[in-house]
Amino acid sequence: MFNPEFFSMDDYSTEDLFSETLVICIVSTTGSGLEPRAMTMLWKKLLLSDLPPDLLDNLCFTVFGLGNSAYERFCWLAKRLTRRFESLGAVRLCECAEGDEQHILGFVSPKFVL
C-alpha cells in the first residue's frame, strides 16, 4: 500500500530523495528551458558533479512535464530531469509525459516500459 505525500520542490529535502523508492515529478519549463524558481535549489544539488552514479539506484520514477510547444525547448526540464535521474542510477517506470498547453487534448499519454 502506498501513502503518497505531495510536496513543492522547494519544500522537499534533497536528502529525502536519496532514500525514496518511488517518485513522480511534475515539472514546468519556463520560456528558455529553465527550471521554475521553486525547483532551483533541488536542481542545483542534483547537478553536482561529485554525486555517485549509483546514488538513486533504489529509486523508480517518472516525470510529467508541463510546457508550451510554441517554445523551442518544450518540456526541456522534464527531459533533463529524466536523464539526470537515470545517470544517478534511478529506473524509469514509464516514458516522460508532456503536457502541452497548445495541444487540443492538453497532454500526451506516457507509454509504460515495464
Automatic annotation (TrEMBL):
Protein name: Flavoprotein-like protein
Annotated GO MF terms: flavin adenine dinucleotide binding; FMN binding; oxidoreductase activity
Keyword presence, Flavoprotein: yes
Residue intervals of the Flavodoxin-like domain: 1-114
GO cellular component: cytosol
InterPro entries noted in UniProt: Flavdoxin-like, Flavodoxin/NO_synth, Flavoprotein-like_sf
UniProt lineage: Eukaryota, Fungi, Dikarya, Basidiomycota, Agaricomycotina
Gene3D superfamilies: 3.40.50.360
Annotated keywords: Flavoprotein
